[in-house]
Amino acid sequence: MDQHLKETQIDSTLVYDGSFLKVQRDTVALPNGKPTIREYIKHPGAVVVLALFEDGSVLMERQFRYPLHRVFIEFPAGKIDLNEDPLECAKRELQEETGYTATDWQYVSTIHNAIAYADEHLDIFLARGLTVGERRLDDEEFLDVFKAPLDDLLSWVKEGKITDVKTVIGTFWLEKIVAGDWKL
């Protein structure tokens, strides 16, 4: 199925090998046989945590993101380490960034946020049964943690105050989950 759309790799070159990201430049054959170049970022994958309190509020972060030179409102999230289980990564990231742990974890979905130029995927998890503890931020991490009602998140998405794709999608998932429209 869909073979008429497939592009076939002819050769591949690692253009940049960073500590976090790698940039690949491939020559591919298009479905019509003509060659072209595809440049893309290789990413190890990440997790997103939808941390839902019993009162219906949600745990959020405010963090400066250098590529866009501004602070974003986001869900707790982080990169999956080599050979790390995504659920274990989600538990680790929630505790490190926010200080919270959760007793109830559910897988929600996997999203691909930049399919035109990256192979990154994000595994989304719902966390409930939250208990606050000590944060353990990495030396290069600076972020604020706060609680917000789900209705505020929905308004912030509509108003353009939340534009981070994982947070927009996670907010819509939460809306459906809380309303009982989508079961996990």
Automatic annotation (TrEMBL):
List the Pfam families: NUDIX
Domain Nudix hydrolase, which positions? 41-170
Catalysis performed (reactions): GDP-alpha-D-mannose + H2O = alpha-D-mannose 1-phosphate + GMP + 2 H(+)
Q: Which domain of life is it from?
A: Bacteria
Q: Which Gene3D superfamilies match?
A: Nucleoside Triphosphate Pyrophosphohydrolase
Q: Which PROSITE patterns match?
A: NUDIX, NUDIX_BOX
> What does this protein need as cofactor?
Mg(2+)
The UniProt entry's GO biological process terms, in alphabetical order, are: nucleoside phosphate metabolic process; ribose phosphate metabolic process
**What is one GO cellular-component annotation here?**
cytosol
Q: Which GO terms describe its molecular function?
A: hydrolase activity
Ordered alphabetically, the record's keywords are:
Hydrolase
Q: Which family does it belong to?
A: Belongs to the Nudix hydrolase family. NudK subfamily.
What is this protein called in UniProt?
Answer: GDP-mannose pyrophosphatase
> What organism does this protein naturally occur in?
Glaciimonas immobilis
